[in-house]
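Bug report

Summary: structure tokens for Fructose-1,6-bisphosphatase class 1 differ between web form and batch submission.
Environment: batch mode, default settings.
Steps: 1) Submit the sequence below via batch. 2) Compare with the web form result.

Sequence submitted:
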Amino acid sequence: MSKIITLHDFILDRQKDFAYATGELSSLLTDISVASKIVNRDVNRAGLVDILGAKGETNVQGEEQQKLDVIADDAFIRAFKTGEEVCGIASEENDDFVVFDDEISKQGRYVVLFDPLDGSSNIDVNVSIGTIFSIYRRVSEPGTMATKEDFLQKGTEQVAAGYVLFGSSTMLVYTTGNGVNGFTLDPSIGEFCLSHPNIQSPETGRIYSINEGNLDRCDPGLKDYVQYCRAEDPSTGRPYSGRYIGSLVADFHRNLLKGGVYVYPTTNNWPEGRLRLLYECNPLAFIAEQAGGLATDGHQRIMEIDPQELHQRCGYYVGSKDMVKKAMSSLKHSEALIHI
Ligand code: AHG
Ligand code: MN
Ligand code: MN
């Protein structure tokens, strides 16, 4: 009979791999798993209690907030405040970063950036959604208040990143820069259990994920790319399958396991791109790279972008290595593939 390894056991076991480990990162990851279970509970009963639908407010990016966006944001913030490892957070749902100014939190060595609920437009229709998070070591002095510089770090500085997917089952997938591991929530015992050890993404696959409704609004090369994906060529497995859930985290997860590419390019109506560098693109880029894949904005490696603003957006090409390269090579208005 195979041994059950809970997330908690796994985190503590992995802590031994880091010579400098003090256990703070382990506690922080545990806080995240607890907040995930709280959000999971709320997502699961969303149709039964009054938490579906819009909240009647817009966030700083002008997007309508759903009630569950705010419930998830609050749950994670509460977990980080209660723990003692985090001195501040930034999330998609808050105008500015939030500093925890009590004496214990000010000693915290980490900041967390997160998208509390990704795929909000799918909440009301019972389609997969998720939470995405990214953890950095602060650059300001412990004991002082967190500063903007703590949050505006390149993705290469992430110490951990992950996501929770509320799908047909609930999964938590994360990396600390030492491979990618996935855990499935067993609701009968309330524990995340190791189900996908050492995830490796196939170098190529047969799935392309792009909102084809936008094709007339983006680099014309992408039309050629989609044409390539659709063309009959059994030797390369084409035509590929088009799959687009509209929840980045769910599209990403499927492509990570099966092999595929997800593209959200810059478009006429989203000239900087639609997805957010700090809350969505960097954490998933870290996971993609750790699993052997790639993540770029069409020009350069996502994790090397020097962020200027908290809510900065960018184009996004992520997934299986060969497929990301192929999609980028089709771009006409870019000098693709500079640094990768
Ligand atoms: P969020 O719900 O956090 O605002 O993110 C939504 C994102 C992403 O999850 C998804 O892939 C993309 O927006 C869908 O956008 P389109 O509907 O424009 O395709
Ligand atoms: Mn999102
Ligand atoms: Mn969101």
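Above is the batch result. After comparison, the two runs are identical; trailing whitespace caused the diff. DSSP finds nine helices and 17 strands in the chain. The CA atoms of residues 7 and 192 lie 5 Å apart.
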